[in-house]
Design brief:
Layout (H helix, E strand, L loop, with lengths): L3 E10 L5 H11 L3 E7 L2 E8 L1 H14 L5 E10 L7 E3 L20 H7 L43 H8 L20 E5 L12 H10 L4 E4 L4 E6 L3 H10 L8 E3 L3 H7 E2 L2 H8 L5 E6 L13 E5 L4 H10 L3 E5 L23 E5 L11 E5 L2 E6 L7 E4 L8 E3 L9 E4 L2 E4 L9 H17 L6 E5 L5 H12 L4 E5 L1 H13 L5 E11 L5 E10 L2 E8 L2 E2 L5 H4 L1 H13 L9 H4 L3 H13 L5 E2 L2 H11 L11 H9 L11 E3 L2 E3 L1 H8 L4 H20 L6 E4 L6 H10 L16 H8 L2
Helix pairs in contact: 5-9, 12-22, 14-17, 17-18, 20-21
The structure holds zinc ion (2 copies) and fe (iii) ion.
Fe (iii) ion (FE) binds next to helix 12 and strand 23.
Amino acid sequence: MELSTYKIKIEGTVQGVGFRPFIYGLATRFLLHGTVLNGAQGVEIVVNASSENLQNFIDTIRIELPPLAHIDRIETNKIPFHTYTGFHIITTENEGETTVRIPPDVSICHQCEVELFDPKNRRFGYPFITCTYCGVRYSIIEHLPYDRVHTSMKFFKMCDICKSEYMDPLDRRYHAQPIGCWDCGPQLNLMDNTGVSLGTRQDDMVEQTANLLKNGKIVAIKGVGGYHLMCDATNAEAVAKLRKRKCRPSKPFAVMVKDINIARELGEISQKEETLLSSKERPIVIVQMKRKLATDIAPNMSKIGLFLPYTPLHLLLLDTLDCPLVATSANVTDEPICTHLKDLEKLQGVYDYVLEHDRKIVNGCDDSVVMVVKEKQILLRRARGYAPVSLQLPFVLSNKILALGANQKNTIAIGFQNQVILSPHIGDLNSIGSVEYYEKNIETLKRMYDFKPEVIAYDMHPHYESTKVAFQIAAKDEKIKTNEVQHHYAHILGVMAEKQVMGKVLGVAFDGTGYGEDGTLWGGEFMVCDYEGFERIAHVNYFKLLGGSKAIKEPRRVALSLLFDLYGEKTLLLDNHTTKSFSNVELKTYYLSWEKGLNAPLSSSIGRLFDAVASLLGVCQVMSFEGESGMMLEELYDKSVVGHYTFGYEKGLIDILPLIKEMLVEDDVVVAISKFFHTLVEIIVMVSKAYDLPLVLSGGVFQNRILLALVLERFPEALISYTIPPNDGGISLGQVVASA
Ligand code: ZN
Ligand code: ZN
Ligand code: FE
């Protein structure tokens, strides 16, 4: 057997996931001599091997891959012969363009969980136990390559035992950057809300916290990507107190439960939902409620967001407590999640105690939220566990593109070569704090990937904060090109890119709002799209949003506007849920603004149509959180109702007024709502008839599980994204693609 020297380059998620020790073990098994190292583009292996042995070695790498690793590409080249003795792991080189993926934060692994509860283990009860296969990653990384000195673990000097585990290629903790123990790793600190510590003993802090929670206290607990506000989910008083203090009257809270058995007691859980709940990403999964907790977790809703403990600290707490916990992100309304103790000052008066630890959160990251529709996973918020993610495009980008996303549920993305890196959910850009957090995220992503954009892609909306930031960045460097992208085209492109669709599609963008090319607010759009551009072939006939942005929070304003469209001034004499919610003076004022078109922008949005229906049927007049009207309509849908309402369709204009008119004389609310859902499906059927193209669904309205299920029943082949959210979280990916 003739030996040659080969260089094997492996790209993908191959750092911080136990890849080098895995290669070390494999090389030893195959009796190969050579080296392995972490480069900026991935892992590089050099070996002396026969061509046959080399092939077996590479095949086995693919087959036996460590659990958190993912390979995008393996490149093998013969290089000048060199004799190696033994196999060695060599320390990180840091050069070249960074294309390595940043591993996301994942939940504690099974082996660590066993050790956590093993009294004989030296990390028994240690709230930060971790290994190469689990724990924090993205949230502690300052920059690449992923080494301890580039993370917030650099402040903890490993003790001798931890160090020897870290240095041993055959240990599960070999080069596991976040490892530590009672002696050398991060420590807890329990404080009251004035900052006074409640104790100095590490080993009873979890128990003390559990007692406080048991006694109805609200505790801010530092997690992976930020703080949670937690309280006993079975304690009605505690939950009501949290709602009151957080000024959050009705938006559902997520609940963390000890294990899958408790989850099954509270929710109807399908196989797919169970897999998601128990996955290493541990998202919040929205499921059908089976047993109502005696508290206002999700007022008027039959769904509940559940998730399982994902850190050793959560496991210890829930093990001590034996009751489910409300776990909601600690943030002020419209502000990003708190990641530092000093951020919590803004929440003074909301929490009673803080359970703090001294491992710094470098990158904030919320919990992810998922639902399952027709056994398909739909991500509603892509964050911890899933982000950042690298997606492969079906083509190569000629420029380096930075896409800034939209204004709601913002994410950003960078694109280079045939890759797009998508940030975690950043949130709504409605406050100074959130815009600062947004700008910090842009800097972080650029720094981590050593990325200098050549093109900035942004939404067409002139007043979006993201648009303003785009111009600020472009103003600093005249070489940077800018590209404005229509919102709904970006929605559809995001799905096309994820699905690697080539050719033309019929995109259905049912959305809240998005700035249209004619300056109106689109959101009920049918567009024939490919990567070159789009043609808007049909849309909902415009109606007026009385009061502009106020109409977005008040369904009754949209409903009133549609009534004016139907009945003009006679509307003032009508007696229905919508008109009753206004005073006579208000009705007259709005009539004038409708007539004159004052502060009444035009819209074709299906999201707003949902609002109007909710108001007309007396379900919701003013919303306390985004999406509330749609969720309430979902609750009232009855699948045994048949039939739909009339709508007009001529020359690409969808007339929804006949629908409204028929709905107004319907006696039964449930029948009306069910027929409304059916009508939306019929609209898609009608418009798509003339186009023999793949159907692509996107836009925030497709977060409505009833509508999505009905559309997928009718169009089982319709494409919807699984890895990016249908809401504006997917916009930045589409913007990259539009700028290719
Ligand atoms: Zn582990
Ligand atoms: Zn140690
Ligand atoms: Fe949108």
